[in-house]
Amino acid sequence: MNIKKTGELIKKLREEKKISQYKLAEELFIDRTAIAKWENGKSLPSPEMLVSLSNYFSITIDELIFGEIKKIKMQTRI
Description:
By secondary structure, the protein is an all-alpha fold. It is 60% helix and 0% strand.
């Protein structure tokens, strides 16, 4: 787990959705300072919050923990 990469990914995903830290905090029912701490690599989301974030951003918990989105290779069925 890389706390800095996790924070950078959260920030990237938030910015892609064009929402503020305040708006994300409202959506997750938490204080905005928690979002800032995650994004600055000062703390990590709790296990419960990892679930909420993964659902909100439609990514896996693994992707959040490791701080990178994995590209899924699609296989063609014959």
